[in-house]
Amino acid sequence: MSSTPRKRPAPDALVAGIVVVILIALVVAVFLTGAGSTLYPPNAVTSQAHEIRGLYDIVFAFAVAIFIVVEALIVWSVLRYRRRPTDVELPVQTHGNNLVEVIWTVIPTAIVLFLFVISWNTLNNVDAVSDEPDVRIHAIAGQFAWQFEYLDGNGARVATQLVPSYDAETGTGGMAVPVGRSIQVTLDSPDVIHAFYVPRFLFKRDVVPGQTNVFEFNVDEAEAGQVFRGQCAELCGTGHRQMLFNVIALAPADYETWLADLVEKSNATPAPRPSGTVLDVSAEGIRFDTAALQVPADGPFAIAFTNNDPSILHDIDIKDASGAVIQDQATITGGTTANYTYTPLAAGTYTFFCSIHPNMTGTLTAK
Amino acid sequence: MTADSHALTATQEHTPLAGLAHDSRGGISNVVLGMLLFITSEVMFFAGLFAAYFNTRASNSPWPPTEFALTLNPFSLILVATVILISSSFTCQFAVWAIRRNDRTGFLRNIAITFVLGVVFLLLQAYDYSLLFEEGMTLGSGPFGTTYFTLTGFHGAHVFGGVLMLGVVLYRGMSGQFSSRHHDAVEAASLYWHFVDVVWILLFSILYFL
Amino acid sequence: MATHALSPAAQAYSRGTLYEWLTTTDHKKIGIMYVINSFVFFLIGGVLALAVRTELAQPGLQYLTDEHVYNELFTMHATLMIFVFVIPMLAGLGNYAVPLMIGAPDMAFPRINALSLWMLPLGGILLISSFFTGGAAAAGWTSYPPLSAEGPLNSPGAGQDLWIVALVLIGTSSILGGINFLVTIFKMRAPGMTLFRMPIMVWTILVTSVLVVMATPVITSALVMLFIDRNYGGHFFDPFQGGSAVLYQNIFWFYSHPAVYVMVLPAMGVVSEVLPVFSRKPLFGYKAFIFATAGIGALGFSVWAHHMFTTGAVFLPFFSLLTFLIAVPTGVKMFNWVFTLFRGQLTFSTPLVFALGFLTMFLIGGINGAFSASVPVDFALHDTYWVVAHLHYVLFGGSVFGIFAGIYYWFPKWTGRLLDEGLGHLQFWLMFVGFNLTFFPMHMLGIQGMPRRIADYAGDAGWNDWNLAATIGGFLIATSMLPFIWNVFISLRNGAVAGDDPWEGNTLEWATTSPPPPYNFDHLPEIRSERPLFDARHGRTGH
Question: Cα dihedral sign for C530, C532, C535, C540?
């Protein structure tokens, strides 16, 4: 900047320049080393996610470049052009310059048009949906649990996964998919808006009531055996953060076994109504039909439970007075029944509740 | 840029209210400009409602639903109400022209007629609502009922607001507050009344004919 | 600059000071009350934010037993900050500045101005009162139906209805204020004050007012429809009865995206006043800046659906393209600001320091916005903490830093006293560090997959450290308010006397006394450029 119109001590510019260079070096160092890695998405695991990741990296490179250039200009100006006690006369009153205005209009326009074009390109790949996918899954997001219906080639349901989260101990639960195959997911909601979000897919899609959204993905072959976190990403009420699920990537052969198990479980004849103490409870409109139950103390008992909320999951678990869950039952979907058998309870007062809906509670007395 | 009075210079008298109520810049007055901007915002409000109407209509067929297929008959009482409201726009404009000529009698006569026509329109609309209720069409009758009553209801509320404005103008006119030089409130009220009229013409054509 | 009270008659009334303030139609008193009212709600909204951050400090529930309360907290935090703090605060700064800057004695409709003001505390109190009437609105500040509809798991109770009524009220206040600004700017400019000699602050208020007048009624229509759905059995947004859930989002964002510019354009105006004064140079590219402002305003109406990329119900390429394009005029402004500093003589008074905070932080808010404009990248980032980071870099890093620049800049004009520089710098650095510590980590949280609006998260998800950092930063921001409040308190009593023009300002408000008399001026300098006071001080030779 030797063309500065006024006399300035040279060290001023030098110091400003050095500070700016150090700052730039710091920023670049952060981005190139592990410290900056948290600014990149987690490793992508689907072919669609790889495309998004590639796009992200390009956008990110532009972002960092623009950030460095502009912030460096600001910092440099701030350090370089401090007003000195000797600055009595006005600096040169520059009102503008049409050439530079055109330059900094045209160059950003070119950059954003480029970003738009590559984004659009990627979008077409990410959003592509085939007519004949290898696997069809119908995901239903109701407050506050996911259900995954596995469909055959004609769209008929063959089995339903009612346990959305994977349990490492029992190896049950979760939405299993074969790696290397195209998986088409259709999304429906019986109540409010939810969103299907798996961070490592770098993807989410809203689940909008009254509108069926579709998307497709192919999990990388190398990911067989991996379990990925998923979560509802659109505020859906009090239980929003509990709307978790897992996607389990399996080798195709393992997937077939897994699906066969699920089909078998789905088709299993429900246990007959047990003898002994059996209470009838039903749920409708996100409410139990009773707020108080009574069972004999120290004896086994059962609840014949009917869920009348279409596409919504319910169950009846039991908490003791301290709030600890002492008996846990599997959830059932709307329009089905289950016979829950419970182990004997000592005399006292307990709470029965639906594990999905915090407002569904009642008192259970054992005496 | 012409000179104007509200920026006080040393040569001018120090009247604190100078420039507040009067504006000598020429062209449109503060009140009329304010009303035009207010009408702009009202247009956007109705645009939101109309957007909702068309969106709802596009995703529901048949429209109107079979049970209300013949309920909204344009050649009924509503046509009379429409003619009344359109006529009132004319009488309102006659009132404006009259006061511009300083014809206070003509102004008062026309503004009074406009006022009465506005009230009659509201009464007819209320009666028409009661007929619809008898046929079982309410705000809760599916998207059809919801959109119909929301759109016409908000229009009715705006007519009511316009009638109030006309009432104030009539009252002020009767106490001789308007003249050919000073009648911004009349111009503003008439603009609003024309706006209400245009919205009704749109509503009537879309709800009953389209 | 000898000025004196214009109206001797004004002294004849001897009502109490309180009565005078409550009944005033003076734009200056109204402006100050706007600022005070907004600041009070800023503090309340800030407390709610601390409650949110405390809950998220580490995994597990910290103090909440009912997670529904968490939803109320962030819903009301956003609602208060947007509708009763940022928008009215900027309207308040404008209310004080605009008539002075264009050489007018008051706003065009002083009584409507008072009405606009008094609707705000009423709306704010309605919002707060919902906490005591069975629970506040808890469906997020966006209140998407069906979640915001009536229903046991949706939004039962009066809170959501109070929220709707309050927002309609505040919206009406905004619309009336916008009309008032527009008529004032178009009709009440002093002789010589042509449109292209108006200060940038006035230009940004002009464009903002156009946005308000054209967009706010649209959200009013959405709120009215939601109210009808909730209370009178309507079916606008009920997807199971022929309505459409996405329809609400379209109407809502048709307002709420322009609203983002309503919240940031006047802050840009403040910065565009502060930078030239403290670098002793004119704003670089005055006209380009105006065209960029108008361009942002116009484009602002055609990008709303970029909030809805993941709904699967909008035409993605169109909204993506326009969203990218809106970065261009914003970039033009950024370069104009930087080149205003370039080769200037910078005095680091508190207003400039906050304005520099605006530049450096708003830049980040602009850049990370480009990520969301890219639709596939938005699929990854939408509804995660990335979005929370982005919007706070725009609304806090941009608007709030701009607001404080404006408060420090105009406080001497409002009160005749200067705020203390040391405390001002202390506040800035606490706020700057706290702000970045709070919101920068949210980028990482979002990228790593933490969704918004969750009361708790798994301890093994890798989000613990960043959340803790953000919580500490949040309390640092809160701490930064203490020196500010103390500064106002002591400066009002013992602050240095400001005089008419403590900063060597460029615009007309510095031509009158501090504080100005009722009706503002008894003498105006000649207006031959956008810097009439600079011309008066230096003559035309300065150019």
Answer: positive
Identify all chain C residues contacting A95, using CB atoms and an 8 Å cutoff. 282, 284-286, 543
Distances (CA, A) of A295 to A180, A299, A341, C522: 52, 8, 12, 88
> Residue B113 phi/psi, 5° resolution?
-60, -45
Average pLDDT, chain B: 87
**Cα–Cα distance, C136 to C131 (Å, whole number):** 5
Report the distance separating Cα B108 and Cα B106, nearest Å.
6
Cβ separation of C146 and A192 shorter than 8 Å?
yes
Q: Angle between the C350-373 and C421-447 helix axes, to the nearest 10 degrees?
A: 10
Distance from CA of C19 to the nearest CA of A (A): 46
Q: How far is C-alpha A15 from the geometric centre of its chain's CA atoms?
A: 47
Q: Which residues, including other chains, have CB under 8 Å from residue A234's CB and lie 6 or more apart?
A: A193, A194, A195, A206, A207, C144, C383
When pLDDT is averaged across residues A88-92 and rounded to a whole number, the result is: 89
Please state, in angstroms and rounded to a whole number, the distance separating the CA atoms of residues A47 and C90: 47
Query: If phi over 0 gives left and psi between -120 and 50 gives alpha, with beta otherwise, what is residue C189?
Result: beta
Instruction: Give the CA radius of gyration of chain C.
Output: 23
In this predicted structure, the answer to whether residue A268 has a pLDDT above a threshold of 70 is: yes
Token pair in block for residue A123: 């979008």
Give me the residue from C7, C182, C225 closest to B37, CB to CB. C182
**Backbone torsions φ then ψ of A239, nearest 5 degrees:** -95, 20
Q: What is the pLDDT of residue C14?
A: 62
Model pLDDT for residues C8-66, shown as the tens digit of each residue: 445 555 678 888 899 999 999 999 999 999 999 999 999 999 999 999 999 998 888 88
C343 → closest Cβ in A4, A126, A199: A4
Tokens of A294: 């009574």
Give the mutation candidate from C310, C363, C540 for the A interface (greatest A CB count, under 10 A): C310
Q: Up-side HSE of residue A91: CA atoms within 13 Å toward CB?
A: 24
Residues of C in contact with B13 (CB under 8 A): none
ipTM attached to this prediction = 0.92
* B21 near C CB under 8 A: no
The conformation of residue C384, written as its DSSP 8-state character, comes to B
Give contacts of B64 with chain C, Cβ < 8 Å: none
Joined tokens for residue A228: 């990925």
A273 pLDDT tier (thresholds 50, 70, 90): confident
C-alpha–C-alpha distance, residues C93 and C411, integer Å: 10
